[in-house]
Amino acid sequence: MSSEKNRLLDLLGISIPILCAPMVGAAGSSLATQVTLSGGFGLLGSAIHTPERLERELEEVRQILGTDRDSPLRVGAGYIGCWLDGLAEEDAKKLIKIALDNRALAVWFSFGNDLQKWVQFVRDYDSSTGRKTIIFVQLSFLEDALVAAKDWNVDVIVAQGVEAGGHGYGAAPPLRSLVSSIVSALPEDGPVILGAGGLVTGGHIAEIIKLGASGVVLGTRFCLTPESMYPDPYKQALISAESSASVRSEAFDQTGNWMQWPRGVDGRALRNATVDDFERGEDVQVLRSKYKEALPVHNVDRVIIWAGAGVGVMKSVKAAKELVQDLYQECLASLAKS
After folding, report:
1. Which of 100, 160, 177, 236 is at a distance of 20 to 30 A from 207, taking alpha carbons?
2. Domains in the chain, ordered, with CATH?
């Protein structure tokens, strides 16, 4: 898989077409940089950071990568559109501008009712500075991908299937169907296409690449790394879980009481007592109280542990750099057999 045949590798200047999703609460400076140092590409889960925390994490990235302030920072910053929409517009722009001023190589937008506004803000910033920021948008429907490709001038479309852990659209198609439809509908010189959702093995990655995607984005698999910010009890719960334990539910957002998500968005995480009680109709305020009590002590029977549909295949913690390289070798071996 040479860079001549893979537009993603050329676009990001990487050697391995594996990216770490910008997971809030899991993907910090340590995980993002180790994925980048492996030859892949890491993104910070910066969606709900304060400006001060985002500045601090970007500085940590700079130190780990040994990058001076005049050079591009080889990580991305992920933003949730509905979180930005809930801020005063100038505050939202300030948060994005922190990544741009720090010369993050890429920004990622997802789950917003007007993502085009934020895409345009980045393009206007680039025009004023003479720089080029790579823009990712995460989408789950062919119709949205066509609009993003035609009207938004994005560089990368991340096709998120219904198997994905964390937030997503419950009505999204399975990943393989989604990738196939987007690849077939977009021109070859359109945005780079990546697949995300339930991918945890090199064989899974090879399947998505064979469908025409340039690479993949992994989330849950990277939670089982020493560099992940997931607490150890969460990691043990992921290791112990079968894939059937990964369920889509509104229980997670009703209990966590995060933010107002776009219509149709719910979450995929491990089934536990929170989900069971929600499905039995227990009062939401009671569930929220139990959730708040569980957070400080990492009570896995009550907290939200985001997990994609492939969680049952994950049975060990592995360093991020080693994980990326092992997955890539497995992917190449699988592709060689086809």
Report:
1. 236
2. 13-230 (3.20.20.70)
